Write the structure tokens for this entry.
Amino acid sequence: MAVALILVLITVGSVVFHLVSPWWWTPIASNWGYIDSTIVITFWITGAVFVAVVFFMAYCVYRFRHQPGRQAHYEPESKRLELWLTILTGVGVAAMLTPGLFVWRQFITVPEDATDIEVLGQQWQWAFRLPGPDGKLGMTDTRLVSPDNPLGISREDPKGQDDVIIEGGELRLPVDKPVKALLRSVDVIHNFYVPEMRAKMDLVPGQVSYIWFTPTRTGTFEILCAELCGVGHPQMRGTVVVQEQKDYQAWLEGQASRNFARLAPAVQ
Amino acid sequence: MGSILVFLTALLIIATWWLSRQGLMSKPWLEQGVAVDWLAARRAPSSAAKVGLGVFLAVVGSLFALFISAYAIRMQMPDWRALPLPKILWLNTGMLVLSSVALHGTRKAARRGEDEELRLGLLAAGVTALAFLSGQLLAWRQLTADGYLLASNSANAFFYVLTGIHGLHLLGGLIALGRTIARAWRGIAPERLQLSVELCATYWHFLLFVWLVLLSVLTGWAGDVIDICRQLLA
Amino acid sequence: MVDVPLGHIGPAHAADVDDVELYHPHSWVTKYVFSQDAKIIAIQYSATALTVGLIALVLSWLMRLQLGFPGVFSFIDANAYYQFITMHGMMMVVYVLTALFLGGFGNYLIPLMVGARDMVFPYVNMVSFWVYLLAVLILVASFFAPGGPTGAGWTLYPPQAILSGTPGGQDWGIILMLVSLIVFIIGFTMGGLNYVVTVLQARARGMTLMRMPLTVWGIFTASFMALLAFPALFVGSVMMLFDRTLGTSFFMPAIVEMGQTLDRSGGSPILFQHLFWFFGHPEVYIVALPAFGIVSDLISTHARRNIFGYRMMVWALLAIGALSFIVWAHHMYVSGMNPYFGFFFATTTLIIAIPTAIKVYNWVLTLWRGDIHLTVPMLFALAFIVTFVNGGLTGLFLGNVVVDVPLSDTMFVVAHFHMVMGVAPILVIFGAIYHWYPKITGRMLNDPLGKLHFWVTFLGAYAIFFPMHYLGLMGVPRRYHEIGEMAFVPASAHTLNAFITIVALIVGAVQLIFVFNLFWSLRYGRPSGGNPWRATTLEWQTPETPPPHGNWGAKLPVVYRWAYDYSVPGAVEDFLPQNQPSAQPASGTIHG
């Protein structure tokens, strides 16, 4: 009796907790509302299964608890019942997987008009590179990293000459413009994670990975590292400032002239 | 991870075939009494050791398949510089083949109860296996002398690791073989050595097979064959 | 019911009787220390694993103290914190759960349940334990090595695992960890061969595969999987050991570490992740399948009802075992691997949910119309279903590739895997110990203490890990020594963290009651008799309890029926032991 009651209470408690929990995802600031929708679908389906299974268990524990004279029913299996349950589970799984795969397809298909930006991780700070007036990023090589060239930008590549380099962890992005973030690391694996953007991907040394997203509202958001990268892992923070297009442009021009001036002498 | 998946698929086929003969579809609650067909399925008492060796070879196979998978992934990176294989490897391969052949003969001798042939065969297998291992060491020395050091390129590192792990497995086999030789010399009847000899022979054939696969990977033939197959399919 | 004609029952097979003479222990040392008896080895394995488990429990306290009350305990600095989480994770997954289920329960139960005198290779079995102990000692030694143990996280991802930014990366920590893993795998292979070959070769007369209890099926399948999966960790460990000590570049690309250019190039960190998870995902099921098997037997025995859908349970077990080898990259959706892999691995991962769900249905359907005795083992089995269903369902979030993107590397993952492969299997371990302790010692564990232990552990563990999901959903990353100031984290989240810590301390402390119970009942427990739960399987039918060397006395058991003849209509008792020829109880088959 008590056991069945506690099982019911656990289930009800879990559902109530879910509904009233003050801890919920951050208000979204990117185009990945579909990801949230997929999570909601998954919550509904899995929640229903959880409640059904534990309630049924509680019922059995109460109804079929040992009493003098009770004998268990003898029934080795029931093909029909098992078949139906399997089919039902299959349908449930498909209902979660199908939307998931469609959204994943979008997630890895970068739109044509996305602007390339670069995110570079190193223990334990972020640096960013934005394309200059030519709209293109220059080539890089980890072996070129040095104190006066912390991102390892190739000086032979003309496309890199006008790139805007931002150290110190504040990335600015224009609102409603898709960006493709090229992710690179010079030491260990890091992970670029902005909770409000929902997107997340590792920065792996020796290769370039990517994610894309479109910021949909202006504001300042935190960048966290989400892959253990040594003792300084929790301190590896940055910010994304999403601005209106014209504010962004004004800021970019100011940056471009400054950075260009700083890098140019080093070319020789 | 292609090679390990191929390997596991092969194991899966064997496992499915075996399980299909174990009555997995039967309804055990309907059957009482000692199952009749069960006694027939019972093999010779010695088979535990053989089955044990079989399972162990699956583990070793998985180990090498994983090493080869790692090799195949790593060799696609741009810094890969294949190293020239020392000529002595071919002599070593010959030695290992001879060793395997010798044990094959010994197995027959044990079955027929031929004392002299048995001892001779075991000894020949041991000597040729030792020759193989010394040859591998010579190959290492030669490569090191030519400047192909372990840390200078991953192709070199893989060569040393793969040959090293294979050599260690053969060394382990040599301990078992050494004990069998000692027992044969103490005059134990060939019939009683039959199991040990058979186990050694199986292990040797397997290690020879692994070595041939490794050789085909190290020389790049395996890659070529896969490329050709891919082109044929495309 | 159809009576199959009895086969020829002659004297026991010569090979089976020989076994008794093989290794008759002559002295105290060969009987209890360097014993080749699987039952002694099982106890040695279990005692060692439980000790390691207590160390890992203390480590979890320390890390929870830091998370709940950041900055209060000055000795838990970032270095120490990462060392604690790493050692906690690796110890629990490999040195406790794997060793306990396979080395502990496998050794004790396989020979008894299939009606064998012992494992087929007793000497190798003994060596297996001592090699395992060596691996544990090497691991523990890293606490005392210069620089302390590694703090690379239990996944040991290179390059950080072997660089100076990580505790133990350029000291002894990571080397000892890798060596210990390599030694463990060698030791496990020796044991694993025994578990598999004993099931294949040493079953009693009449014990067909489909008559085996699901416990044996679970441990058998898991052992086979472990034998094939551990080599992947072996390969990864050997290669990383080379990278760390000999300067190779298997996993090391060109790196500029803290302004220093390292002499490495071209290596692939993702390659390690593939190798690690090729082991790591089957490992989840290596822990889960024995738990599945054991819990099936607990539920069936204590609900006095045959396990519902036995055949489906066996097929599901095998299907999960096979599928678990092609889902590994679902741990790597955001690792920067080829994103198109996501489609394949999400599909395989969600397919594996189907056989797993079938198992859950059959457990609860076994309860349905049963005769449920709410004994302590049964309570643990019920609690297992709750936590496993909860943890399994959150797995559907993380397996579904795009849902994983916001959740991966957050506390949601921590909550998920603790629920599904931490708490759930440990509840089964407790249930199994309460269930089989009478067979091992001849005495019952104390019941009120058991119930206290159960309720605090179950409710406490649920209270720890259920709310933790929501921290992750909010975006709190895992492996943060301190969350610090995060704009999106409200103050209430810190209160929640403190709450979780307090519950964790209580749950941890209650385990001491369990340890006390283990020792106390050894002397003062109620004598149990040979078959206190009135169970059908062979281990309860031994002529003596605890079973002596050779288990069965002069005559090996003969098996006449499957493992689940409970409440058979027409039978006098509500259980028919597997070695009982007819439905009417014959004298001498049930020993008290």
User: Anything to note?
Assistant: Chain A has two domains: 2-66+76-108, 115-267.
